[in-house]
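Ops channel
N.P.: pipeline sanity check, posting one input/output pair.
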């Protein structure tokens, strides 16, 4: 029944989103697709997942409805034109401005590469060789979780997110994929391999994608993507995805080599040699509602207000001993494999209780709709930053509340700092 109901509700919401925003590429559709995919994948039961409780389904549908209601609330009462196609202002750059953006991408890539290499230098010195680092991948991953492996330059690595943000703008305007853009992505992947994580790779791909498409829409009034005329763009996007997938799968293979899952489909469960669609990847893109369901059976509310939602703030305050340092990693559950990410709904429930399930998605829907119309009524990089970074948050709600990530938070701040530098240089040149 759920395998029919989930896509039905999803298609209805996506259709409504197209009517509201004149394009399928909008925050309501993005939110809906993410949740529909993980719910549908979970219910396929290619792995013997636990059954989702009625309470958990109620929380998921309540969150979705509240988000939709938030979108409708702002749409109904806003003063902006109903269609962004009616807005005459367009985003544009001259050749000097594009050149500045190129150098920003190049510099961020170089900085990020240096940080990545410093991380690798530390690991090689500690474990003796690159080979030993990979052989000890599981141990290194555990040590990272427990905070036993320091970052070479804490927090500055998030400048890579700024690099991919400006890369999306550059690629959208010039149709050129160059060494600077490639350098940014490679530096991020190298850094993530050094800590045997995958989150930054996924986040970087999303930032680049949103930056590219939203820039494209602000330049042309709609997404223009003619497959016959944009072969280079298609090849570039495929290349970026292949690089990201290769990096993510390298992390998977080194962290646990071949991961064994007991599934209902024997052929699928044994498909450990598959490059892209593996039991591990399936688990990664489906398991989180199972964790949510398990959590709701015995919830453990936070004693501190918004400890997940505002985790970077708590981490900063803890350095001055104003508050106790909060754990970055959450309690895990077996569903039947171990996992500790239970969607953003778990985290807002921990932070705010039952009311959080309704209030947070509702406010998120309002805020993202506000950002949408603010950007298209006044298309500039300043407004684009918020739109992109909060759409990353929006697109990952099925996984985690990404605002709890220091890299996401600092990456957004560093992007604004680079924007200030960009504007200063542009003024001087003029």
């Amino acid at each position: 029944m759920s395998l029919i109901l989930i896509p039905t509700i999803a298609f209805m919401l996506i259709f409504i989103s197209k009517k509201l925003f004149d394009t399928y590429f909008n925050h309501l559709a993005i939110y809906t697709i993410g949740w529909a995919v993980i719910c549908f994948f979970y219910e396929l039961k290619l792995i013997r997942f636990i059954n989702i409780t009625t309470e958990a389904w109620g929380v998921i549908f309540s969150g979705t409805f509240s988000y939709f209601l938030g979108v409708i609330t702002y749409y109904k009462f806003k003063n902006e034109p109903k269609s962004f196609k009616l807005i005459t202002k367009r985003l544009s750059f001259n050749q000097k401005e594009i050149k500045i953006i190129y150098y920003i991408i190049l510099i961020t890539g170089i900085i990020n590469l240096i940080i990545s290499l410093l991380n690798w230098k530390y690991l090689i010195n500690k474990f003796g060789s690159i080979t030993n680092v990979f052989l000890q991948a599981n141990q290194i991953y555990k040590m990272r979780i427990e905070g036993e492996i320091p970052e070479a330059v804490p927090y500055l690595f998030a400048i890579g997110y700024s690099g991919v943000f400006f890369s999306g703008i550059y690629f959208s305007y010039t149709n050129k994929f160059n060494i600077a853009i490639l350098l940014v992505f490679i530096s991020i992947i190298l850094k993530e391999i050094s800590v045997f994580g995958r989150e930054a790779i996924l986040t970087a791909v999303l930032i680049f994608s949103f930056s590219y498409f939203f820039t494209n829409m602000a330049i042309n009034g709609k997404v223009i993507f003619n497959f016959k005329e944009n072969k280079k763009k298609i090849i570039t996007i495929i290349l970026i995805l292949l690089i990201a997938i290769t990096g993510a799968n390298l992390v998977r293979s080194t962290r646990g080599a071949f991961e064994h899952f007991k599934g209902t489909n024997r052929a699928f469960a044994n498909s450990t040699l598959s490059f892209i669609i593996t039991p591990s990847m399936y688990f990664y893109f489906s398991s989180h509602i199972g964790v949510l369901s398990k959590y709701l059976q015995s919830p453990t509310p936070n004693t501190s207000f918004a400890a997940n939602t505002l985790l970077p703030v708590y981490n900063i305050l803890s350095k001055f001993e104003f508050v106790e340092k909060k754990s970055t990693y959450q309690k895990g559950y077996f569903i039947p494999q171990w996992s500790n990410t239970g969607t953003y709904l778990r985290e807002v429930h921990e932070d705010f209780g039952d009311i959080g399930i309704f209030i947070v998605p509702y406010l998120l829907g309002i805020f993202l709709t506000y950002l949408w119309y603010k950007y298209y009524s006044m298309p500039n990089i300043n407004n684009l930053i918020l739109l992109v970074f909060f759409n990353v948050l929006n697109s990952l709600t099925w996984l985690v509340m990404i605002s709890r990530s220091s890299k996401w938070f600092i990456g957004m701040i560093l992007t604004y700092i680079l924007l200030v530098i960009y504007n200063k240089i542009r003024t001087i040149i003029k």
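N.P.: looks fine end to end. The mean pLDDT is 83.
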